[in-house]
Design a protein that fits this description.
The chain folds into three domains: about 5-325, no CATH class; about 330-420, no CATH class; about 435-650, Phosphate transport system protein phou homolog 2, domain 2 (Methane Monooxygenase Hydroxylase, Chain G, domain 1). The chain is about 65% helix and about 10% strand. It has helices spanning about 5-10, 15-45, 55-60, 70-75, 90-110, 115-130, 145-150, 160-180, 195-210, 265-270, 310-320, 330-335, 340-355, 360-365, 370-380, 390-395, 395-415, 420-435, 435-465, 470-500, 505-530, 545-565, 575-610, 615-650; strands at about 75-80, 85, 140-145, 180-185, 185-190, 220-225, 230-235, 245-250, 255-260, 280, 300-305. The strands form two sheets. Strands 4-5-6-7-8-9-11-10 form an eight-stranded mixed beta sheet, with helices on both faces. The chain has a three-stranded antiparallel beta sheet with strand order 1-2-3. A hairpin with a 2-residue loop joins strand 6 (about 220-225) and strand 7 (about 230-235). Helix 13 (about 340-355) packs parallel to helix 17 and helix 23 (about 575-610) runs antiparallel to helix 24.
Length: about 650
C-alpha cells in the first residue's frame, strides 16, 4: 500500500504509526532482555559463577540506560529450593509491563483498519490476565515457578508472557510489511534516507543470493526502517517466533541481536559470520530448578565497526547470505544425526552452508528416509531404522556420501530436476560407495596383516633374547602380543559387520578370519615363550627355532605386501601392482614350504639336545604354533590370490 492509501485508511493517526512501530520493535527487545535476565539471574543464584554474564550488551542494545541492572545477576541469591532474591525484580516487571504496552500501541492504533478490532481486544485481555497473574513481588523475592511462567516458550506448558511477546512481535512484523512506503531490493522499507539504500541493498543482495535454497519454506521477510540516527533491519528467518535477527546500523557500526532457542544453531550462526570480524558478547545459560531446558532461549549481541562503507556493505551482504541456512537447521541436524554422530552432522551442515547449498533440499526430499530408501536397495539384509550409516561405510566415506546427497538434492531442486532423477542419482552414488567397499575391506585386511607382522616381529625378538634379561623381554612381548591379538579381533569384527551388509564381500570375511588364525597362533607362541620351565632358570632357544621365527616374520610381511597391492589390481590397470601382488603371494608359498622343513629341523635339534622334557615340550609347542601360523597365512594369501585373479581380473 502506498503512503497516501495508508493515511486514507487510518486518518491522521497513520502519520504516527511508523514511530510507534519503531518503538514497538525496541520494546520487543527490552521484553526479551528482561526475560533473559530473570533466567540468567536465577541460574547464577543456583550455581554462582565469577564469570556469569551481566547482559550489559543486551541492555544497551535495547535502549535501557539503568546500569544498576548489570549487577542483578551477580547479586542474585537462592533463598531455598526454587526461591530467589533477584535485585530490581519489581523494577524489571515494570519494564516488562511497559514494553508490552508499547508493543500493543501500533496494534491498537490499527484496530478496525488492518487488524480485526475483536482480535486486538482479545490480546489486550490476554495481556491483562497474564500480568495480573504475576504474584506480588515483595522484597524482590521471586519463585522459580514465577520465572518459569514468565519465560516458558512452550504452548504445551500453558500461556505465558514469553508466548505473548512472540505473538505480538509476529503481528508487529506483519504490520511493518503492510505499511511499507517502498520496496528496496525485496525489503519493505519506510522512513529510510538516501544513505540507507546501499546498506539495505547490500543486505538484500546476500539474502537473495541464497534465498532459493529455502525452496518452499516460508521466511526471510525483511523490513527496514529509520529510527533517529539508526537504520533498523529485521529478518524473520523462518516460521519460529523466537528466532529473529535485528540489526542496528549507525554510521559505520552495526549491532546484531540474534535470538534462538537452540544453542548449537546459535554457535553455527556465529561460525558462519566469523570471517566478517564480528565480536560477540558471551551469554551463558544455566539450568534452574523449575525451569525446563526447553524453555530457555538465547539472546546474543554481536558488534562490528567497519573501516569504511565498502567494509560495512560487505558485512551486510555476508550476513544476509547466511540467514537461509538457519531455517530448519536443528531439524536437519537431528535427521543427519540418525545417520552419523552429532559432531559429524554439524560438520556437514557447516560444509553445506559454506558451499551455499544448505540442507533444505535434503529435508524436502525426505531427510534420512531418502538415504534409507537407497540403502534398502543397496544392502543385502534388512535395515533397522536409525542404524548409523558411518557404521556401514566408515566415517569418512559416510560423510563424503552425505555431502554428495546434500549437494545433489539442493542443486537438483534448484535447477528444476525431477525428484525421481535426483533420487536415482543418490541411489547410484550409494551403489558406487558400496562398490568401493572392496577397497575399504582390503585396507582393513592390510591393517590386520600389519598386526600379524608386529606379532611375528615381537616373537622373533623375544626368542633371540638370552640370559637373565631375556625373561623380562619375553614377558613384555607376551603382554604386547595379547593386546595386538585383541586389536586383530576388533578388525575381524568390523569386517564381519561390513560383509554382512554388503553383497559380494563375504570373501573378505573368510580371508581375514583365516589370517586371524595366524594371529592367534602367534599370540599363543608368545605366551609359551614367556613361560620359564624351571622357575626362572635361563634357557637357550635352539637355533632352528629362531630361524623358524624368522621365516614366519617373512611370511607375515609377504601377506601384508599382498594386501597392500591388491586394491590397486584391476583389469586394464597398471602392471606394477599386479607384479607386486603376485610376487608377494608366491613368496608366501615358498615361505610355507620352508617352514615345514624348518619345523623338522627343530624336532631333530630338540631330540639331540640335553634339555629336559619340560623344555622339550615347550619348544616343540612354540614350533608347532609357528608352523600353523605360516600355514594360515598361506591359505589366506591363496584365497586372496584366487579372488583377485578370478573375480577382479577376469570378472
Amino acid at each position: 500500500m502506498t503512503k497516501t492509501r495508508i493515511v486514507e485508511a487510518l486518518g491522521e493517526n497513520g502519520l504516527v504509526l511508523p514511530a510507534l512501530l519503531n518503538a514497538a520493535i525496541l520494546a520487543n527487545e527490552r521484553a526479551k532482555y528482561v526475560l533473559a535476565l530473570f533466567q540468567v539471574a536465577a541460574g547464577n543464584a543456583e550455581n554462582p559463577s565469577a564469570g556469569a554474564p551481566n547482559l550489559r550488551a543486551e541492555r544497551e542494545a535495547c535502549g535501557i540506560t539503568d546500569g544498576r541492572l548489570d549487577r542483578v545477576v551477580a547479586r542474585s541469591e537462592a533463598l531455598g529450593p526454587g526461591v530467589y532474591h533477584i535485585p530490581e525484580a519489581a523494577h524489571l516487571i515494570a519494564i516488562l509491563s511497559a514494553s508490552l504496552e508499547t508493543m500493543f500501541a501500533p496494534l491498537a492504533l490499527t484496530a478496525g483498519g488492518f487488524f480485526d478490532e475483536t482480535a486486538v481486544d482479545v490480546r489486550m485481555e490476554r495481556k491483562k490476565r497474564l500480568l495480573d497473574a504475576i504474584p506480588p513481588i515483595d522484597g524482590d523475592i521471586v519463585s522459580g515457578e514465577t520465572i518459569a511462567a514468565l519465560t516458558s516458550g512452550r504452548p504445551a506448558a500453558g500461556d505465558g508472557i514469553h508466548l505473548l511477546v512472540m505473538d505480538l512481535h509476529k503481528e508487529i512484523s506483519r504490520l511493518q510489511a503492510l505499511i511499507a512506503e517502498e520496496e528496496i531490493a525485496g525489503a519493505r522499507a519506510y522512513g529510510i534516507t538516501t544513505a540507507d539504500r546501499p546498506l539495505i541493498e547490500a543486505f538484500m543482495a546476500g539474502v537473495q543470493r541464497t534465498a532459493p535454497m529455502k525452496f518452499d519454506h516460508p521466511g526471510l521477510v525483511t523490513t527496514a526502517a529509520r529510527s533517529g540516527d539508526t537504520l533498523l533491519i529485521q529478518n524473520d528467518i523462518g516460521a519460529t517466533e523466537a528466532h529473529v535477527i535485528v540489526l542496528r546500523v549507525s554510521g559505520l557500526t552495526a549491532a546484531l541481536t540474534y535470538t534462538d532457542v537452540h544453542a548449537q544453531r546459535l554457535r553455527f550462526f556465529q561460525n558462519a559470520v566469523a570471517t566478517t570480524g564480528i565480536v560477540w558478547e558471551d551469554l551463558h545459560s544455566r539450568q534452574v530448578s523449575g525451569l525446563g531446558k526447553e524453555d530457555l532461549f538465547y539472546v546474543t549481541v554481536g558488534r562490528i565497526a567497519a573501516a569504511d562503507d565498502a567494509g560495512l556493505r560487505a558485512f551486510l551482504e555476508r550476513l544476509g547470505s547466511r540467514i537461509v541456512f538457519l531455517i530448519d537447521w536443528n531439524r536437519a541436524r537431528k535427521r543427519l544425526g540418525l545417520l552419523v554422530p552429532n559432531a559429524l552432522a554439524v560438520d556437514l551442515l557447516n560444509w553445506a552452508a559454506e558451499h551455499n547449498l544448505g540442507h533444505r533440499g535434503f529435508l524436502q526430499l525426505g531427510g534420512e528416509r531418502l538415504i534409507y530408501d537407497a540403502l534398502e536397495q543397496a544392502v543385502r539384509t534388512p535395515l533397522r531404522y536409525g542404524e548409523k550409516l558411518h557404521e556401514m561405510l566408515g566415517a569418512e566415506a559416510a560423510c563424503d556420501y552425505l555431502r554428495f546427497v546434500l549437494e545433489t538434492a539442493a542443486k537438483g531442486l534448484r535447477d528444476g530436476r525431477s525428484e525421481m532423477l535426483i533420487r536415482d542419482q543418490i541411489r547410484a552414488e550409494l551403489f558406487n560407495h558400496f562398490h568401493s567397499a572392496e577397497q575399504r575391506l582390503l585396507a582393513e585386511g592390510g591393517r590386520h596383516a600389519a598386526i600379524i607382522v608386529r606379532l611375528a616381529n615381537g616373537l622373533r625378538g623375544a626368542l633371540q633374547q638370552g640370559g637373565a634379561s631375556g625373561s623380562n623381554r619375553r614377558a613384555e612381548s607376551a603382554q604386547l602380543a595379547k593386546q595386538l591379538e585383541s586389536e586383530a579381533d576388533e578388525v575381524v569384527k568390523s569386517i564381519r559387520a561390513t560383509a554382512q551388509r554388503i553383497a559380494g564381500t563375504e570373501i573378505f570375511r573368510r580371508i581375514v578370519e583365516i589370517a586371524d588364525d595366524a594371529a592367534d597362533h602367534l599370540e599363543d607362541a608368545a605366551f609359551l615363550a614367556a613361560v620359564s620351565p624351571d622357575g626362572g632358570v635361563v634357557y637357550q632357544v635352539p637355533a632352528p627355532l629362531a630361524g623358524l621365527a624368522d621365516l614366519v616374520l617373512e611370511g607375515a610381511q609377504s601377506l601384508r605386501r599382498a594386501m597392500a597391492a591388491a586394491p590397486e589390481v584391476h583389469r586394464g590397470g597398471s602392471r606394477e601392482p599386479m607384479c607386486n601382488f603376485l610376487e608377494a603371494a608366491d613368496r608366501l608359498v615358498t615361505v610355507e614350504h620352508q617352514t615345514d622343513a624348518r619345523e623338522r629341523d627343530v624336532t631333530v635339534a630338540l631330540i639331540a639336545s640335553p634339555i629336559d622334557s619340560r623344555q622339550l615340550h615347550l619348544f616343540g609347542e612354540i614350533a608347532r604354533h609357528l608352523e600353523e601360523a605360516a600355514d594360515a597365512m598361506l591359505r589366506a594369501g591363496l584365497m586372496l590370490r584366487d579372488h583377485i585373479m578370478g573375480n577382479v581380473m577376469f570378472e
